[in-house]
Design a protein that fits this description.
Blueprint: H1 8-26, H2 31-38, H3 42-51
């Protein structure tokens, strides 16, 4: 990835976005249930979704 010019923060954001999409899909878009499964607050989940362009 480094050779392709992808920075670390971009790679982490892409991985996080993929992971969040999967979790949300499993919980039929219910952010509260997805956040609970991840062990994070719903607001933290929402902020991560915004950062990843999912909200």
């Amino acid at each position: 990835m480094v050779a392709g010019g992808i920075r670390m923060d971009e790679a982490v954001r892409e991985l996080e976005a993929h992971f969040l999409r999967q979790i949300l899909e499993e919980h039929k878009g219910n952010q509260s249930k997805a956040a609970k499964m991840l062990g994070i607050h719903r607001n933290t989940m929402r902020n991560k979704m915004r950062r990843c362009g999912l909200a």
